Structures are given as structure tokens and as C-alpha cells.
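User: My collaborator sent over this chain with a note saying "see what the structure looks like." That's all I know about it. Can you take a look?
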Amino acid sequence: MKDKDPLVRIAAAGALGALRDPQALPRLRRALKNKDPLVRGAAAEALGQLHDPRALPRLLQALKNEDEFVRRAAAKSIGKLSPPEGQRGEILEDLAAMARSADFPPAEAAFEALWGLLTGETD
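Assistant: Without extra context I'll predict from the sequence alone. Here is the result:
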């Protein structure tokens, strides 16, 4: 029987991110579609910990999520990745648009992501 408790899923996402195992990528990408925004946000954060650019397409989709926490986590994670040169301009534009928004926590995260992508300084 699968556990449906969001707290368990949030903890699992955090643990998968902390392990930094690329094999966690498919599970975390699926978790971005979970109905609970806290699970989606935890998955977005964990994807950033993997430092795997294959997570970019799903994280870019998460930038448009209706939930502020998910958008913020996705932006922060994108700032930790090294996007392919062909996608870099589009990603910078998406983050810049988010940074200009009046939606403070996601805008702040977008600034942090832009800083990470432009300087290479990530946490």
C-alpha cells in the first residue's frame, strides 16, 4: 500500500535531494505533479540539489505553477543548474520576468536564481 501522507512525501523528496543520486530524477519529476503544493515545492527544491540539467524542463514548467511556494522553489533550483547554452537566454528571460513581478517571495527567488546563473555562485 502506498503512503498518501504529504508529510511522508515531503520528507522523501528532501531525502532524495540530499542523497544527490541522479536515479532520483524520475521520481522527483513525477512529484512535481502531486496535488499537494508542499510536495511539489519539496520536489522542486530536491531537483536543484541534484544539480542535473535534465530537471530543467519540469522546473521551467513549475515556474508557472499557481502556488507561490512551488514557483519560488523552482526558481531557486534553476539557479543551481547549468543550463545548456541554447536554453540559457530563454531561462534568463523567464527568470527576469518572474523577478519583475509583484509576487515577492517568488520574485526574490528569481533574483537569486539569476545571480546564480550569471555568476556561478550557488549554495
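A starting point for your reply to your collaborator: DSSP finds seven helices and no strands in the chain.
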